[in-house]
Amino acid sequence: MEIDKSPVKMEDMVREYAELLRKSNDEDAKRMVVRVEGILEATDDSGRSTPHFAAVGGCMPILQLAISQDKMAANRTDDLSFGLVLFYIYPAKINRVGNSIKVSAKDFLIQKIDLVAIVGLQDEKRGLRSEDPMGWTPLMIAASAGRVEVVRYLLSLPQVDVNHRNNNLQTALHYAASRNHAEITHLLLEAGSDVNAADKFGATPLHRAASQGHDKIVHMLLGRPKIHIDARNSEGNTPLFLACEEDREDAAIALARKGASLTVKNKEEQTPLDVLKTNDLRMKLRKAEQHAQAMQQ
Fold this sequence. Notes:
ANK repeats lie at residues 134-156, 168-200, 201-222, 235-267. This protein is mainly alpha-helical and 297 residues long. It has a domain at 162-297: Ankyrin repeat-containing domain (Serine Threonine Protein Phosphatase 5, Tetratricopeptide repeat). The chain is 44% helix and 5% strand. The protein is built from 15 helices and 4 strands. The chain has helices spanning 10-22, 26-35, 50-57, 60-68, 71-74, 105-110, 138-145, 148-155, 172-178, 182-190, 205-212, 215-222, 239-245, 249-257, 279-296; strands at residues 85-88, 95-97, 100-102, 115-119. It has a two-stranded antiparallel ribbon. Strands 2-3 form a two-stranded antiparallel ribbon.
């Protein structure tokens, strides 16, 4: 039998590499970085690259390396305002050329040098703010995938835009709220996420959480002083309407207790009360409404 000696195509290696990172297989992914030249900067057929793959799988070493190897940042000085500042447990492995700091991928991966912090990246289209064709950044991907430590790390870096919007005008907070990632939602809010950001359908993070009955996140969002509790989506539906429509009792009661309107109508002239499935919830919402009115007096 004749053995196929045709070279492996780069796109196939990128596909394999991306799958390793998505499955959190750090060690095999590290070996590919060392073995396959250019794989760290390569993109797949959807335009995603190492920061995106690593954010999905929570592969911190590879994510940090990809950011540190950003071509523009790698040639900057170690000025805190503009440069790339690297702190290593083994500083002898750092190669200084003038005021520049350089470290090889091999030293980072094979000799197990631990990166503690990377700050000061400026390039908006690579590394920290690297977007895929749909406008997803590593932060958005990590927030959606529930990668708490990746989100915490990215938010610690000065150039990350916590309110970046993808092509559907959604933010990282939309995905954290939708996927019921409470700790990530908290981190994003503390980092300044716009609690009222509306996507192209007019939906806010509160719409997402309320419609799916993510009660802890609903309470978290309602605790923000600038929350627009009766924000309407493109169909005129409020978060309370969606909670009632989906029979999310606890979320609906929490919204009503905070003053969400029971009578506001959508484009179909329906109120939240019109889509209730039980009279029991109707009574609870009326009681919650009375509580909200009493609190306002």
